[in-house]
Design brief:
Elements lengths: L4 H4 L1 E9 L2 E6 L3 E5 L14 E7 L2 E7 H4 L12 E7 L2 E7 L1 E9 L12 H5 L1 E6 L4 E5 L1 H4 L1 H7 L1
């Protein structure tokens, strides 16, 4: 089945909340939503690495997105969620606060990052959508995972 012009003009995003901010993940990279359980910490790893877990027989590196975005840690009574993504043949879990909905948005409405956006956040962003009442930052998964490249180097 081929894409129509209308399909090419839109993109789908899974929305997630990290802290109080709304983020969008390109849906084509998302393959699971789950509660991270039985996480094993990795000694001497970067603070962004929450640990590893076994998901259907695969070892998944989990990244704490609050730490990756330099946000305060989650409170002890707050439940975390995870979004499973696939990149470069490996599986990863992005630890987030809440999963939202899937939005289909026109590519022409994607704006550049605001000039006053935190520099660290801007480095992880593909741009922003101005929704009715909120700003949704579109995460660049490749840049989010670059923290792992620093480890391998």
């Amino acid at each position: 089945m081929s894409e129509t012009a209308s399909d090419q003009d839109h993109r789908e995003y899974m929305t997630v909340e990290i802290g109080e901010q709304l983020f969008g993940l390109p849906i084509e990279g998302v393959h699971d939503v789950f509660r991270p359980e039985n996480m094993t910490s990795v000694p001497r790893s970067r603070p962004e690495i929450a640990g590893v877990l076994n998901m259907r027989g695969r070892i998944v590196t989990s990244i704490d997105m609050r730490r990756r975005l330099d946000l305060p840690p989650r409170k002890a009574d707050e439940t975390a969620m995870a979004v499973g993504i696939e990149a470069n043949g490996e599986s990863y879990g992005l630890i987030i606060d809440r999963v939202g909905e899937v939005l289909r948005l026109p590519t022409t409405s994607l704006d550049a990052n605001p000039v006053n956006m935190d520099r660290g956040w801007a480095e992880l962003s593909q741009g922003v959508y101005r929704l009715d009442e909120r700003l949704m930052i579109v995460l660049d998964v490749t840049r989010v995972l670059a923290v792992l490249d620093d480890i391998a180097a």
